[in-house]
Design brief:
By secondary structure, this protein is an all-alpha fold. It folds into two domains: 97 residues; 201 residues, no CATH class. Helix content is 77%, strand content 3%. It contains ten helices and four strands, in the order E-E-H-H-H-H-H-H-H-H-H-E-E-H. The N and C termini lie far apart (95 Å). About 9% of the residues have low confidence.
């Protein structure tokens, strides 16, 4: 066994007391043995704490990862909840549409999960994952706030829309309103359009009614007008003019519907809201037009029968007479023809009332469903 000189590092024999090169006193073999043992023990003592520190670091990293994953799951939960609340107002699709909206977000959620695994979890960077999850949490919190705020504004818009719809249904006046963007958010342009559209439609009906009333249709079949031949002829002219009024306003209302679709398309609202509004509008507009055409066909049929009756009376003028308010004919055959025309007119009046009752009932059902959707 050689002994190394502590000064010049020269190897010497084990029995040497002094270095053969620099004459420095050399330690004995026993001293070397003790020193080696102490060094070994010291290294072991130093190494043991290193193992404990590594375990502590692993635990801290696992805690960071667990905390980060929890924040990310909460973020996804917030987005899911806000999407369901927002899209659940889609009356046509309901909760299924809401879930579809959530499913549509799954792509970016999957992408985020992939990036988390590749960039962070796989490399076990706990602190980096925590920072990333905090960013995701704050972003999803803000996005959820925006979605819930849109939900609130959309609910307010739906309530106001159905309130105006109810006024129209009850024959009450629709008034011009100002819509605050703080209350209606992105739906403000639509509310302004719908208020203006409702006013326009109601004013058109009022104008139509006033134009018809100017011709005094309710006085056409009174005794005074049926006793004079010229009055009968004037009544026929009035019926033709009323028919022209109905034709004119049928065209106007159809044009209003067409213009409404174009105006909705040009509204300054988010694309998703605009798509929903257009979907609902297109679903109901055709039925609305069919219902309107049905009404005008009933009115035209009534005018036709009224004109036929006046033509018959014109031919029978000087033959029939009045006893009180009852018109009398010398022959039963003529009385039967007169009663046949009157019965057809009464049937058309009843048909119009049935149409009005049905439309009002359907409107009330729609109104009820709309109000329940925003509770």
């Amino acid at each position: 066994m050689s002994v190394e000189c502590p000064k010049c590092k020269t190897d010497n024999t084990s029995d040497s007391k002094f270095c053969k090169k620099c004459a420095t006193p050399l330690p004995s073999s026993k001293e070397i043995l003790v020193t080696d043992t102490l060094v070994t023990h010291k290294e072991e003592l130093i190494r043991e704490p290193k193992i404990n520190i590594q375990r502590v670091k692993d635990k801290e990293k696992n805690a960071l990862i667990l905390c980060s994953i929890t924040l990310i799951l909460i973020s996804i939960g917030l987005l899911t909840y806000s999407n369901i609340k927002y899209y659940s107002l889609e009356i046509e699709h309901g909760f299924a549409y809401a879930l579809g909206g959530v499913a549509g977000s799954s792509l970016w959620i999957a992408l985020v999960s992939y990036l988390i695994w590749i960039l962070i979890l796989k490399k076990k960077r706990g602190a980096g994952l925590l920072c990333f999850s905090i960013i995701i949490f704050l972003g999803s919190g803000y996005q959820s706030y925006l979605m819930l705020e849109k939900n609130r504004a959309l609910k307010e818009a739906v309530k106001s829309s159905y309130s105006m719809f109810e006024n129209i249904l009850k024959g009450e006046e629709v008034k011009q309103k100002d819509f605050d963007r703080n209350s209606y958010g992105d739906m403000t342009p639509f509310m302004e359009f719908f208020n203006s559209y409702s006013l326009q439609i109601q004013n058109d009906f009022i104008k139509m009614e006033n134009e018809i009333n100017q011709h005094g249709i309710e006085y056409i079949f009174i005794q005074k007008n049926l006793e004079e031949l010229e009055s009968i002829r004037q009544s026929q002219i009035k019926l033709k003019k009323i028919r022209m009024i109905y034709d004119k306003y049928e065209i106007i209302f159809k044009q209003r519907v067409k213009e409404a679709g174009q105006k909705i398309t040009n509204l300054d609202v988010p694309i998703d809201l605009k798509a929903s509004i257009l979907r609902g509008f297109n679903k109901t507009k055709d039925y609305g037009i069919e219902t309107l055409v049905e009404y005008y066909n009933i009115e035209r049929s009534y005018l036709l029968e009224a004109n036929n009756l006046l033509e018959f009376l014109q031919k029978q003028h000087g033959i029939y007479w009045f006893e009180g308010e009852q018109i009398m004919f010398p022959y039963q055959e003529d009385a039967d023809i007169y009663n046949k025309y009157v019965q057809k007119m009464v049937q058309l009046i009843n048909k119009e009332r049935a149409w009005q009752t049905r439309v009002q009932r359907e409107g009330l059902i729609m109104l009820k469903k709309g109000k329940e959707s925003v509770k």
